[in-house]
Amino acid sequence: MTVLSRRSLLQASLAGAAVAGFGLSSARAQADKPLLRMSAPLTPTDQRAIGLEKHFGPAVAGFATYQPHYNATLFKQGTELEAIARGNLEMSITSAQELATLIPAWSIFTAGYLLRDAEHQKKVFASDLMDGLKKTTEDKLGVKLLSVMYLGRRQLNLRTEKEIKTPEDLAGMKLRMPNSEAWLFLGKALGANPLPMAFTEIYTALQTGAIDGQDNPLPTDKDSKFYEVTKQIVLTSHLVDQNYLAFSKKVWDKFTPDQQATVQKAADAAAEAARQAQLKLEDDLVDFFKQQGLKVYAPDVAAFRKKVQADYLTSKFAKDWPAGLVDKINAIQ
């Protein structure tokens, strides 16, 4: 039987206290880090989610804790910007369509056939043309837009078999769109009957016939398995779709300049990684969908472009666009 001396007991007690003290100190240090909760409707396997977890989370770990919430489980899709403005959320991935509901000038980036490709999209966001819109967003919403995220070229994905060549072929077709005026206008400009619906409801709606189709980039169609309940993809490429990494300005202002630089660098790295992965996926997925039994083909894109552009230029949205901005965007090479 081992008998511990009073000295041994005292040493053991002190050692235990030291370990406990270290644990408390570590927990306190962790608690002192700001929690950066990111709420978005995307899935964990989305390239934007992967890019953020691989590049953003680890980069800021020294002074903040990144905590993603997917599938709109923390905040309902479309409410994230208001949550950031209220101080109830730190980060989200938002769209020009959502921004346009609060700041109408953003509707310029909801227009079909405006941005040419992923590189043009990136250059436009980085240009001084965006300074006014970015500042307005900070001033009115308390939201800082860190980086642009390439979502892909949006294509029509339909459960029907009717061949689509021109906008007229979409007449009467129930096309799911996100629930904002800008999104619904785009659906109508394409020639369809737009139906507002949350992203999380699309699969079941396609499966039951509540909608005839939806529009998303090809990687999203694969990631969310929409190909399981659809029969064709029409390569309209009507929108070079973009998201923005939205960040609380209040939280941003509490960071030191070095920490702000780290956050910005991490956001750009995550966006670039997601962009390159998304571009590669787009290149690979046409064959994948054909192998799944879907028809994949290009319509008369010129006919779609002509109608969509004409509808936008004569719409109420155009009056909110900054003067000359369309021409300046077109001039960026």
Task: State which percent range the strand residues make up.
Answer: 15-25%
CATH architecture: 3-Layer(aba) Sandwich
Number of helices in the DSSP assignment = 13
How many E-type strands? 9
Head-to-tail CA distance between termini: 84 Å
**Low-pLDDT residue spans:** 1-6, 12-29
Largest sheet: 9 strands, mixed
Radius of gyration: 24 Å
**What is the top-level CATH class?**
Alpha Beta
Mean pLDDT: 90
Order of helices and strands: HEHEHEHHHEEHEHEHEHHEHH
Number of structurally distinct domains: 1
Overall form: globular
Helix percent reads: 40-55%
Which fold name is given in CATH as the topology? D-Maltodextrin-Binding Protein, domain 2
Quickly give the structural class: alpha/beta
CATH superfamily: Bacterial extracellular solute-binding protein, family 7
Provide structural commentary.
The protein has one domain (34-331): D-Maltodextrin-Binding Protein, domain 2, CATH 3.40.190. The protein is 47% helix and 19% strand. It has helices spanning 6-32, 47-60, 80-86, 96-102, 118-126, 131-141, 181-189, 202-208, 218-223, 249-254, 257-291, 301-313, 325-331, and strands at residues 35-39, 65-69, 91-95, 143-158, 174-177, 193-196, 213-217, 232-248, 295-297. Strands 1, 2, 3, 4, 5, 6, 7, 8 and 9 form a nine-stranded mixed β-sheet that branches. Helix 2 links the parallel strand 1 and strand 2. The radius of gyration is 24 Å and the shape is globular. This is TRAP transporter substrate-binding protein DctP.
